[in-house]
Amino acid sequence: MARMNMVQALNSAMDVMLERDPRVVILGEDVGFFGGVFRVTDGLQRKYGEHRVLDTPIAEGGIIAAAIGMGVNGLKPVAEIQFADYIYPGFDQVVSELARLRYRSAGEFFAPVTIRTPCGGGIRGGQTHSQSPESVFTHVCGIKVVMPSNPYDAKGLLISSIEDEDPVVFFEPKRIYNGPFDGDPHKPAVPWSAHPRGEVPEGHYRVPIGRAALVREGKEVSVLTYGTMVHVAEAAVRLAGVDAEIVDVRSMAPLDVDTLCTSVCKTGRCVVVHEATRFSGYGAELVATVQEQCFWNLEAPVQRVTGWDTPYPHAFEWEYFPGPARIAAALKQVMEAA
User: Fold this and answer.
1) DSSP of 154-193, one letter per residue?
2) Domains recognised in the chain with CATH numbers
């Protein structure tokens, strides 16, 4: 076991798979010589060569289209989109080609493509470097969508994604890439990340896609969340002084309905937290699932704490970001409801 942050864990996952499977290929903007803008692919081109770790032009549609072609012809491409905000030029390739290929060919063709992309705010990236578009992709049939919250899950889920025969969009919350800061919200910080580093096996292991994780056991209220917000929720629970159970969704499609509903049926109360905008956000799917499956066990209406329904603001980033105070207020409200 080694102590790793998320960047190191993701790098280790790709290193393991490049060595283990000659079909694995890494491609994207600056992923080779430069090692990626966040250094997630650092050293991989030097180790495996330019034919395995490829720098591409600034053309997201072309990156994803090339990855699809590679996958159809027997490779296991891992395509990086430098920021999730930039994935939209390649969206048509994901939706019209990648997600539908196996279905429309009756299983004759498929493309096991993994698309990695950093998401979320907290680094002073402004509206074009801070978006969380995960709900857009969970709406598309034929692809899997995951977002880890810690280094152990990051490595295990990425290995599972690369080995999966279906396409996976792999969101990486960049605010918890590199470790903790001092808590000053006016710095490009990770002020509420309680566990940015962790014990991570150095070799091959898998974290299964399609299973949520119980982060904290509790009896009074369930918090359903994922990514950076797992750590913010932990801080909020301490602030609110409630006995909350925290469930890390981590696999958004497919969704582990059983784990989520077991928790909510036990506590009778639920708060859903995510960083993305509220309207039609992924939390709406979680709320609907809880309402359908746990209605007779609910003691209070389900609460949502999210980003605001605006473009991501550069000047008011920490007002936009769901912090411990906002989540704690929702926890107290749901506890006080009859």
Assistant:
1) HHHHHHHHHH-SS-EEEEEEGGGSS------TTSS--TT-
2) 2-200 (3.40.50.970), 213-336 (3.40.50.920)
